[in-house]
Amino acid sequence: MKTILVPCDFSKAARQAVEFAKEIALVSPGEIKVLHVVEPEYLYGNGMAGQPYVFNDPVLPISVFIQDAEHEFENMKTALGDATVKITLVVERGPLIETVLNVAERENADLIVMSSTGAKGLREFFIGSNSERIVRRAPIPVFVTHQTQHVNDIRDIIVPTSMDLTENEFLTEVKKLQAFFGAILHVLYINNYPMSLVHDQQATASLQSYANFYNLERYTLNVRRGANLEKGILDFASKMPGSIIAMSTHGYKGFEHLLKGSVAEGVVNHTTGTVFTYANPQN
């Protein structure tokens, strides 16, 4: 990885994401851009329901936020210790999601690493967590962490699949990930038999054909029963502590996203582990 972008609000979770990015950059090697986004405040209740107005009175100059961010940044760098990896701070003002994506493009980032605390209830249904929305729209790979994650601890990568044979780019990224971590792939198919009318034995045979098609190495094949794909993936991952989940995203937008959603986004929001996502351009 040449450039890793880490959105950071300097919370404990965000600092853990920076530390994970630093470990990746040490091995890859690469540099880290820590992005601190100052979001505009919105004022509602102006007589026009649902119409946000940027609250400009008063608005502190961006220099104040830069000064505060630089102070937090230096403290974080000191806590990280090893100065081998180049880590620089970028401070931008704007809507969080758009700013992260714009800066990723401007800085030619190869990877986004970010933390997530998830979203619940109506917010999850209509909006989703920030990490979900970035995963949905990012054209580059994204790592989402929910707790402390160390590179040397990753030895197992769970790869949920529908056995789609048009995921060449995604599986290429998965192989790179496997080589980077020296990990075993655990290819997972959630079989919703009897609704699918496919017996587990048939599903296992199809899964083997899938692995052969993509020339996978050092892998296990796993078929699990379950009516809900997301729950099936999370249940499987819960029995494999220390593993990460690698998934391709569909990139649904608008009403289509509301109807179909994305299993990857749901996993990102509800898992307690680390998820790697890749926007397969063929999806």
Automatic annotation (TrEMBL):
Keyword terms: ATP-binding, Nucleotide-binding
Alphabetized Pfam families for the sequence: Usp (PF00582)
Top-level taxon in the UniProt lineage: Bacteria
GO MF annotation terms: ATP binding
Classification via InterPro entries: Rossmann-like_a/b/a_fold (IPR014729), Universal_stress_UspA (IPR006015), UspA (IPR006016)
Keyword ATP-binding applies: yes
Similarity-based family: Belongs to the universal stress protein A family.
Protein name: Nucleotide-binding universal stress protein, UspA family
